[in-house]
Amino acid sequence: MQRIGYTTRLQNVLDLVALFAGARGDHEAMLRLAGAGAAIRAAGGAKKALRDWGLPARLEVARRQLGHETAAAAWSAGAQLSIEQAVAEARMVLAARGRPRGPAARRKLPGA
Q: Is the residue at 12 inside a domain?
């Protein structure tokens, strides 16, 4: 029972960090982390996330931005990560410094 709670929370964290990566313009990391979360969910028998936080729509945007082949490769790479590797990837995304990449980087922030 404790393991089930852990993996459910981990899936949620991976989805949230995927959203964070997407907001920073790192669509490949977004798809890798979402792919990892989906694989963990599937391994546990769940069909979909408890909450989606708008992730499915944002994943579609990321797929369009990257193109089918790159997006599919990123998702597949994420789905193959071990739990430890997925956590390490999430930590790297959260630790990344600097300005966001991609279209978000071109927007001026209020007061800038």
A: yes
Closest CA to 58 of 30, 84, 78, 32: 30
* Chain segment 8-37, per-residue pLDDT in tens: 788 889 999 999 999 999 999 999 999 999
Cβ contact 90:14 at 8 Å: yes
Q: Which domain holds residue 63?
A: 2-98
Please give the C-alpha separations between residue 28 and each of 32, 42, 50, in angstroms, as whole numbers.
6, 21, 23
b or e along 90-104 (b: 16 or more beta carbons within 10 Å of the residue's beta carbon)?
beebeeeeeebeeee
In a domain, 106, yes or no: no
Q: What is the pTM of this model?
A: 0.79
Residue 48: inside a domain, yes or no? yes
- Cβ-based neighbours of 105, under 8 Å, separated by 6 or more: 25, 99
